[in-house]
Specification:
This protein has about 180 residues and is mainly alpha-helical. About 40% of the residues lie in helices and about 10% in strands. The longest helix is centred in the last third of the chain and has 13 residues. The protein starts with 6 loop residues before the first helix and ends with a strand.
Length: about 180
């Protein structure tokens, strides 16, 4: 069996006894650095302590950055660990316009709104790192008359596929 979940969702399944972690053979922890940044490590630690000891399971830990904190976690949660580093690709597609804007939190929405308006109906993708923020942003953009849709992990897969197809067909301008 294979289970893929966020820490919170997996703990929820565990509490409801929908999943039992006592026989886990391989544990994959992806984006360990981001989980540290976002405060998920206590949840991850709870999950790990629900699995067999590290001597009885294989643990794969992935991280974009190897900070001292990530290295410390790797030594706690893995055995005989091996570090594999790859050179990051510096790929920028010629058809994608990439820019950086320095702004304040208070001015962020106004800046985004103006950028979208300057696109004159051209498709725009906006990325966010928290569901509540992306949900609120989608609602606010809609309130301002911007045709948009939300794509997140809490949206059922079939609806996500429809949303992506609708975006490709220009049925709305902004995908959040």
């Amino acid at each position: 069996d294979l289970v893929v979940a966020t820490p919170g969702r997996l703990l929820d399944f565990k509490r409801r006894r929908d999943v039992h972690l006592g026989h886990v053979e391989v544990l994959v922890i992806d984006e360990a650095d981001r989980m540290l940044d976002m405060g998920f490590i206590p949840d991850v630690r709870n999950i790990i302590y629900s699995t067999p000891p590290k001597t009885q399971r294989q643990t794969l830990l992935f991280s974009a950055t190897l900070t001292p904190d990530v290295t410390r976690l790797a030594s706690q949660w893995t055995r005989d660990s091996v570090t594999i580093e790859i050179e990051p690709e510096q790929v920028a597609v010629d058809t994608v316009d990439q820019r950086i804007y320095i702004t304040t939190t208070q001015s962020k929405f106004a800046l985004l709104y103006n950028i979208i308006k300057r696109q004159e109906g051209q498709p725009v993708m906006v990325f966010g790192n928290r569901r509540d923020v992306t949900r609120r942003l989608t609602d606010t953009l809609a309130d301002y008359g911007i045709s948009c849709a939300l794509l997140s992990g809490e949206v059922p897969q079939a609806k996500r596929m429809r949303t992506l197809e609708d975006f490709k067909q220009n049925k709305f301008q902004v995908l959040v």
